[in-house]
Design a protein that fits this description.
The complex is a heterodimer of chains A (206) and B (106). Chain A is mainly alpha-helical and 206 residues long. Chain A contains 3 helices and 2 strands, in the order H-H-E-E-H. Chain B is of the alpha/beta class. Chain B has helices at 10-18, 29-40, 51-54, 58-62, 82-95, 99-105; strands at residues 4-8, 22-25, 46-50, 70-74.
Chain lengths: 206, 106
């Protein structure tokens, strides 16, 4: 599609500059997209592997938790667990790679995994809690990877839209308009020459 | 205040509370959307939510663009892969192909 501009020499110069800029931007964005894709594939593979392991372990854990606590009412459980001294210290750092800002967490824990009186509970419940404590680290790590993956894919779609807009709309439009203006200017020049020749003819006839 | 929050069913949340995670309980699925919007405003860094409750949050979670808080969907006792599906939907929209579930089926 032709841009709505006057076919003048000044406009031509301006458009040529814009075209050069657009081509440079397109090249850079394309490279960024490739970089993001490569990064994305690494993270995706890592995520799938870790996530499916975690999901299996965790759903197993929840099942066990329900089974071993089925003998107690909610009030009793609340009382049993009320003596917990476990604390979680989560610190996060925001990392930015290619305009993708994702958090990396580090987890510090303190205290016993279970502090309820052993007298009233089964040993199997203890194991559930120990497993949960182990999975807690994985959970935090996965949360960070998941967010990274999520944000990378958002960034990819954004960059891809820009690359496509440049490649299929902006650059062809500019090229077409530049061609239109150069044609128009050449046409004017030819007209001028013909006019001069005609004038010369008329003068020589006299 | 802990930086991790758990949103879900009451009995399960007792275990999370034991580990120093802040808990928010919900009675039914309709409440979840309202509650999660409240919890997001509270400056938590990770929000854990169970698969059952996240069931009708799919659209909401896919449209988020903020870095914090991270909403992490935990699997429930019957594993359905909701967490992976959620991410793979987002990925499919971005990349054009569903890389994640293809590899899962291999």
């Amino acid at each position: 599609m032709l841009l709505n501009v006057n076919p003048t020499r000044m406009e031509l110069l301006r458009l040529r500059d814009r075209l050069i800029l657009a081509e440079r931007g397109h090249k850079l964005l394309k490279e960024k997209l490739e970089g993001l894709m490569r990064n994305f594939l690494d993270v995706a593979n890592q995520f799938i592997k870790k996530r499916s392991d975690f999901d299996k372990e965790f759903s197993n854990l929840i099942k066990r938790y329900y089974i071993f606590t089925s003998a107690y009412s909610q009030e009793e459980l609340k009382l049993l667990f009320s003596g917990s001294s476990f604390t979680i210290n989560l610190s996060s750092k925001e990392i930015s790679i290619m305009n993708v800002h994702y958090p990396v967490f580090s987890l510090k824990t303190e205290g016993q995994a279970f502090s309820y009186p052993y007298l009233f509970t089964e040993t199997s419940l203890d194991r559930v809690f120990i497993d949960f404590r182990r999975l807690l680290n994985k959970m935090v790590e996965l949360a960070s990877i998941q967010q990274e993956l999520f944000l990378i894919s958002l960034e990819i779609s954004r960059v891809r839209r820009r690359v496509n807009a440049l490649e299929y709309v902006m650059i062809p439009n500019l090229i077409e308009t530049v061609k239109y203006i150069t044609d128009k200017l050449e046409e004017l020049e030819r007209e001028n020459i013909v006019r001069l020749l005609k004038v010369k003819d008329i003068i020589s006839e006299h | 205040m802990s930086k991790i929050a758990f949103l879900g069913e009451e009995k399960l949340s007792l275990m999370f509370k034991n580990f120093g995670i802040d808990i928010f309980t919900v009675q039914n699925r309709e409440e979840v959307i309202k509650k999660i919007n409240e919890v997001i405003k509270m400056n938590y860094e990770i929000i854990l939510i169970t698969e059952e409750n996240a069931g009708n949050l799919g659209d909401f979670l896919e449209k988020r663009t903020e870095t914090f808080p991270v909403i992490f969907v935990l699997p429930s006792s019957c594993y359905s892969g909701f967490g992976i599906n959620l991410i793979s939907n987002v990925v499919e929209k971005a990349v054009g192909i569903n890389i994640l579930s293809k590899e899962k089926s291999q």
